[in-house]
Structure formats: structure tokens, C-alpha cells
Amino acid sequence: MSKLNLNEFRRIIGYSYLLYIVLIIPVSLFHELGHAAVCSASGYTFSIWLDFRGGHSVCYGVFNNTFLIGAMGGIFGLIAASAMFGVWYLSGKFAPIAVVGSAFALDQGLKVILETAVPRLYAAGAFDLSITVLQILSVALFAIYFAKRQMLPSLKELQR
């Protein structure tokens, strides 16, 4: 790998982490908006806030279908991640957008599973550290994957 390619590789990883940090609060709020949408549609009021653990919402009502309200946050988060892929495609395939979209899709998909399968443990914060580690690692791994994908044409040209 030439020095130019290594610099490009570092640039993709750096921009990916920067973009992830910039978008984590809006995606967290959009996730919570998913929970709030179910709450509001059921006629209840809600609150949404951020703290050091992330975004949170509380619905001031009693639900018979906790599966729906649990799943809807992650579904809204998956919609946000999908929108990032649309932006990536329209942007001329700027790799960090795909990296961040992939990392958020993984994160939000996992949250759908956890919030519906083990809602009490999830709400108590039992998975916070694991999810944070997964987020950090997934950005790095997706950045490596998309950087290699983006550099493939230049590597093929070098072989000619």
C-alpha cells in the first residue's frame, strides 16, 4: 500500500469517527422520537432528554403492547441509518457516510432486539458499556472495510 493510499485510509477513518460523533445526538433523539410517536399516537404525553448515557424517553401512560413501543425507537433509528445510505449514494459515495450509516444500522438493529427481548435489563442500563464498545469498534471495522473498497480501483491500477 503506497503512502498516498495510507493517508486516504487514515482520512476515511478520521472523518468516519468525526461524522459519527456529530450524528450520535440527532440519531439518539430520532430513536427516542420513535418511542414517543407510539406514546403520542396512543394519546399519552411524553418527555425526551439526553444525559451521559444517551437519549431517553418516558411515556406518561400504560401500554398493553410494550413490544411495539420498544421496537419503534430502533426502527426510527434504522430509518435514520437508511437515510444516510441515500445521502452516501447522492454524495458521490463519500465513504465515511456509508461507514456511519452501517455503524448506526448495526447499533439500532441491536437496540430493536434488546428493547423488545429484554426491556427491563435494557432500561436499567445493563448493556450500556457493551453497546458503547460495539459502536466504537463497528465504526473502525466499517471504516476499514469501506476504505479498502474505495481504494480497490487505485490498487488495481497499480497492478497494471
Write structural notes for this entry.
The structure is a single chain. By secondary structure, this protein is mainly alpha-helical. Helix content is 78%, strand content 8%. It contains 5 helices and 2 strands, in the order H-E-E-H-H-H-H. Strands 1-2 form a two-stranded antiparallel sheet.
Briefly say what this structure is:
With 160 residues, the protein is mostly helical. Helix content is 78%, strand content 8%.
Biggest β-sheet strands, sense, barrel: 2 strands, antiparallel
Distance between the termini: 15 Å
Which radius of gyration do the C-alpha atoms yield? 18 Å
Q: What multimeric state do the chains show?
A: single chain
Class by SSE composition: mainly alpha
- Tally of domains: 1
What's the structural blueprint in terms of helices and strands?
Elements: H1 3-41, E1 46-51, E2 54-59, H2 66-90, H3 95-117, H4 119-123, H5 128-159
Antiparallel strand pairs: 1-2
List keywords for this structure.
160 residues, 2 strands, two-stranded antiparallel ribbon, 8% strand
